[in-house]
Amino acid sequence: TQVFQMLQTILFMNVSSAEVSGVVLLGDVPIYAVDPANWSIHFHWPWSRQAASEGDAEKIKSHLKIYLRNMIQYVHEVAQEEQLDYPLVVQIRAGCVLYPNRTSWGFMDIGEGGRDLIAFEVERQHWEPRKPSTLAELVSKSFNSKKAITAMLEHLLSNSCQRHIFTLRRYGKTALERQELPVATVFARTPRPDQILLVCHVTGFYPRPVSVAWLRDGQEVPPGPSLNTTAILPNADLTYQLRSILAVAPRDGHSYACRVRHRSLGTRSLLIPWG
Ligand SMILES: *[C@@H]1O[C@H](CO)[C@@H](O)[C@H](O)[C@H]1NC(C)=O
Ligand SMILES: *[C@@H]1O[C@H](CO)[C@@H](O)[C@H](O)[C@H]1NC(C)=O
Ligand SMILES: *[C@@H]1O[C@H](CO)[C@@H](O)[C@H](O)[C@H]1NC(C)=O
């Protein structure tokens, strides 16, 4: 399963200003970004420029500024009619999920002030309010009256989006299939005289899925109150890290080791003994 999505934020400070920012991601890999200064597209990779010149991406690229200008004008109009208070923050999330069976599911959501406002139901080509409010009603009604646009969105979010994922995979194979080896270290902390916390810190791996376990005398320690594993956190270089902490009693006569499994290791696993 792979998600291709555009995340866009427009900040309206007052009646005459709008700051645009946006990124386009395939999974966790940045592909495109919108330059806030001049709304031109920044390509994160040489191959993302190539991919953007194929299919409907080219059309989207050439219409981006018109779309942004219309969107901004529309928000200011609605703000005036509905007497909304500035600053306003509009967030847009659009893209598709590609499943292993090669079917895809498109989505588009618009939020305002950090909350869901309206969502597009792709198959029905219909905008629905996501909260009971006159603003959500008004905006979805106004978007639904533009049949040419809802039909175009349906096409973009289903066919074009899926095809673009295949194009990106073709041009960006090396970067998208990149693998980085995990580096693991084991150390101990002693918060209390009767307890030792064994910490296994694993970092620098890519992609994200990883398996970290503690072995006691060679047997995997089952989940329980003595075992804590943190969430997987991002590093700045698009690798990940996490730690797994096991509480043990001092001199309990057992041997301990941290075991890491990751795609980059193939069928091998890292085994770091403590002590
Ligand atoms: C947009 O601005 C960036 C710097 O913020 C610059 O590098 C880029 O060349 C500009 N693009 C155009 C089309 O003017
Ligand atoms: C494809 O997989 C998705 C997610 O597992 C599922 O919802 C969908 O029904 C499947 N489609 C087909 C045609 O098998
Ligand atoms: C694991 O986390 C729980 C809840 O935060 C805490 O009560 C427990 O002491 C922790 N165990 C270890 C081994 O750190």
From TrEMBL:
This is CD1A protein. It holds the Pfam family MHC_I_3. Residues 1-18 form the signal peptide. Gene3D superfamilies: Immunoglobulins (2.60.40.10), MHC class I-like antigen recognition-like (3.30.500.10). Keywords: Glycoprotein, Signal. GO terms for molecular function: endogenous lipid antigen binding; exogenous lipid antigen binding; lipopeptide binding. Residues 182-275 form the Ig-like domain. GO terms for cellular component: external side of plasma membrane; extracellular space. InterPro entries: Ig-like_dom, Ig-like_dom_sf, Ig-like_fold, Ig/MHC_CS, Ig_C1-set, MHC_class-I_related, MHC_I-like_Ag-recog, MHC_I-like_Ag-recog_sf. One of its GO terms (biological process) is immune response. The keyword Signal applies.
